[in-house]
Design goal:
The structure is a homodimer of 112-residue chains.
Chain A: H1 19-82, H2 88-91, H3 96-105
Chain A binds a DNA duplex (16 and 16 nucleotides) through helix 1.
GO cellular component, one term (chains A, B): nucleus
GO molecular function (chains A, B): DNA binding
Pfam family, one (chains A, B): bZIP_2
DNA sequence: AGGTATTGCGCAATGA
DNA sequence: CTCATTGCGCAATACC
């Protein structure tokens, strides 16, 4: 809106005299109302979306926390067993972290 | 806004004649402008927040995916070893799922 | 060309 | 009383 028209009552522009002009104004006023309602709805939806995402986020954070703990526990269990008596041979040279990493990367890559 | 004043130029109400009135209007117009700027900023921020949360969400989804895979892999490895030769005795009666569940719940509870 | 949709702006009522 | 917020109408555009 470059020409920042302040409040010229009306002279040239718009319609003609009074008949068509009024109808045009009325129609535009309705359009304005519609537009503003829509705008407010969108704002509301956006705010709702934020709350929704916040919740999803919490759930995911919790999941990560639980999974991380489980994984840690299992790793300990695994390593404890590995450093045990007769299992030395079996677990000798096993890189647990690498195994895990590999297991995660092999989801759908068929290259190599 | 019960009295839906349409567009009466001005008669009673507001100020008095023209001196104080104008100043009052001008000040209000500035306030209106401030208010609207602020409103738009807030809308922008809300939209940015949505995008930000969307990203965080993606990252977390991926983390969950990876951790779940790692965990699955480790469980398989564990169980495979359990159903092995001489380890039957050691793993006999072990409920892996329960162990994992317990390991997750023992974050800070000291009750028995 | 001709309509609707959006947007900046000012006014007035109302909220704080 | 002052400033902030909000419904509303106008006019300029943006959009089709």
């Amino acid at each position: 809106m470059p020409p920042k028209r302040g409040k010229p009552k009306r002279d040239i522009e718009s319609g003609e005299d009074s008949d068509e002009y009024r109808k045009k104004r009325d129609r535009n006023n309705l359009a304005v109302k519609r537009s503003r309602v829509k705008s407010k709805q969108k704002t509301q939806e956006t705010m709702s979306r934020v709350n929704q995402l916040r919740q999803e986020n919490s759930v995911l954070e919790e999941k990560v926390k639980v999974l991380t703990q489980e994984l840690g526990f299992l790793k300990e269990l695994f390593l404890a067993h590995a450093s045990n008596n007769a299992n030395q041979a079996k677990f000798e040279g096993i890189d647990l972290e690498k195994l895990l990493k590999d297991s995660s990367e092999n989801t759908d890559n068929k290259k190599t």
